[in-house]
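Researcher: Re-running this chain for the archive, since the previous output was lost when a drive failed. Same request as before.
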Amino acid sequence: MDILSFLDHVPLFKGLPSEQLQHLARVAALKSVRRGEVLFVDGEEANGFYVTVRGRVKVYKLSPEGKEQVLHVVEFPEPFGEVPVFSGGCFPANAQAIEESLLIFFPRAAFVELIRSDPSLAMNMLALLARRLRQFAGLIEGLSLKEVPSRLASYLIYLSDKEGGHTILELDIPKSLLANLLGTIPETLSRILARMTADGLLEVEGRRITLLDRKRLEELSSGTGALR
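Model: Regenerated structure tokens:
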């Protein structure tokens, strides 16, 4: 498989000249992983980062008691494990494939050398890290300040916007994983989906969710509205 053909579609590499993309392709390696395979663990020395070509990977933290909190679910064309590229040291979280996946691995040393030679790549990295920081700030705000119905409403609006404003959505992750991402348990998530359905906000059929009242979902997400 030609790595170079994928690099053009990765926002991280947007605007790079073809010779730099070719250099990246030469130092990178394709990696196929099975569902459930752990790619790295929190505290492990970071020797590079990944870009998802096919499949999905969850990035998560574990509490001392073993409770899992998913930080984000990564899919094409998103990178992950990129924080130590600048800071060095160790991975700050865990990563595990949630389905069979194909990844591109970039060794840290070769990538840092490319950054030194091309400042535009450094700017792309900074933009990516700033976006991730905003995502984590939103996650912390949601988990600490919002009730679970508001977190779920926010996620459904995010999915809708991601699909161009569509009102008929397909959940892209299992409900058990979605519950984890929202900081709750599957039973609570099921109850809230049932309440939203009874309240006329949603229609749920398996993984298919139809948004019936986006305005009220937005109010619920922002905290200005509530379930009846």
